[in-house]
Amino acid sequence: MDIWMRFMSGDGGIVFGRVEGGYLHEYASLDQRVPTGEVLSTRALTPLAPCAPGKIVALWNNYHALAAKLDKPVPAHPLFLLKSAGSVIGDGATIRRPASYAGKIVYEGELGIVIGRRCRDADLAEAAASIFGYTIVNDITAADLLNENPHFPQWCRAKGFDTFCGLGPAIVSGFDWQAGRVVTTLDGVERQNYPLADMVFSPAQQVSLISQDLTLEPGDVIACGTSLGVGSIKDGATVAVTIAGIGTLSNTLAARQDTGDATAAARAAANAA
Amino acid sequence: MDIWMRFMSGDGGIVFGRVEGGYLHEYASLDQRVPTGEVLSTRALTPLAPCAPGKIVALWNNYHALAAKLDKPVPAHPLFLLKSAGSVIGDGATIRRPASYAGKIVYEGELGIVIGRRCRDADLAEAAASIFGYTIVNDITAADLLNENPHFPQWCRAKGFDTFCGLGPAIVSGFDWQAGRVVTTLDGVERQNYPLADMVFSPAQQVSLISQDLTLEPGDVIACGTSLGVGSIKDGATVAVTIAGIGTLSNTLAARQDTGDATAAARAAANAA
């Protein structure tokens, strides 16, 4: 198992590499895994999300326990939406409530698959070989928007807001997902604790089947879906998602900011024009 | 009105700039609009999609005539999905049928808004100023997948396949959209001919309202939705979408390829594993 992280350095540059014993061994990039020879103390660096995905494929209904609870049949193909790349934040970053939205904001602790090389129409073996490693995702949703319009479910909008995709803290290559569990706490109280082995589509199956829909690129992330225990986050509360062997992804929903008036005015003007 | 295009040059490099009288006046990029001083004959260049969007926001139900035909109320906020960035093809490129999909493939001729600068929580004036120009979109859909699963409408999958977003041929800045019409032909027969003035949300309203959901970045594209006359494309047929003042975007759906068996086998293996 290797631990891969991305940081901002003191001069504002971005560095990526393998972390061992408090030091970053820099590599050229996620898909060009060539050491640059630079070794930096991680204490001088600011952690970022461990990759900058071009796309984030987020699965719905991928755990048997949740499918049973929702009384939905297990799907025959991964059911997914795309989260906007701009929604990504790293460990420790703040989730921002959209200025125009006062409703329920929901966490979902998930396993994230990080793609290591271009992958299209891949069979299972090629799909497995295309997985660079695993990370943790907090797939955040403005839940009241999802079915706000009865004629069009707004999955991409509800899950696509800036800061609505926690990602990190690290990518772990060689992680044995089959023995793993996702444990989510809200202000320290356990809310989710489910086994990854309960997945409907395994990571390699997801990559294989999704690669028949979309070409997957290095750094792309598949959020494997969540299971039981999803719930809402109050303003100011902290969600921590832990997968032993990967780490803990912790993000706090900012206390309500007083920016609602300006945005509401912009929105009203746009609607009226 | 200026015409902006992107090309592949003889050495495989990508050049972007303003086209006038058969010559490309190269610019640094879409958001850094600084001339490089290079002037190239477009005859030596291979046209590409005029930008490489990080995200493509595609609207549903944004024309009064279509809303009336579908008997749906006009929405209060733009209803959108995200098309994958990898779905983009330029004028003249071939639409490929997914190997695993034998169903109906549908064209939608649309106006495309190209963002010129980062835009978040923008009021109408800022939104209007953030529009770099306009292009043409053919928003292609594997229609039978949309409601294949009764529990989850697969918008992102059905519209996200590689080659399912025709974009081009040019971006025109200063284009007067209010007088424009979208004319779509299928193998030369007119199928769509609708006025842009029938839009529910104007381009500036779309940019303003969507910027309150997602930060829009330079090169991002908003596909404004389509109106009456959507239909299916037979294998081998050519769809041409024309907006006078922008140009014609023409793409052919490839004749059926004999690659179905290998992919079907990969799919079956992935499902069975």
From TrEMBL, chains A, B:
User: Which top-rank group of organisms is this from?
Assistant: Bacteria
Where would I find the Fumarylacetoacetase-like C-terminal domain in this sequence?
55-253
Keywords, ordered alphabetically:
Metal-binding
Q: Known SUPFAM superfamilies for this protein?
A: FAH
Q: Which InterPro entries match?
A: Fumarylacetoacetase-like_C (IPR011234), Fumarylacetoacetase_C_sf (IPR036663)
Q: Which Pfam families match?
A: FAA_hydrolase
Which GO terms label this protein's molecular function in UniProt?
Answer: acetylpyruvate hydrolase activity; metal ion binding
Note the PANTHER family from the entry. ACYLPYRUVASE, ACYLPYRUVASE FAHD1, MITOCHONDRIAL
Instruction: Return the protein name.
Output: 2-keto-4-pentenoate hydratase/2-oxohepta-3-ene-1,7-dioic acid hydratase (Catechol pathway)
Q: Taxonomic lineage per UniProt?
A: Bacteria, Pseudomonadati, Pseudomonadota, Betaproteobacteria, Burkholderiales
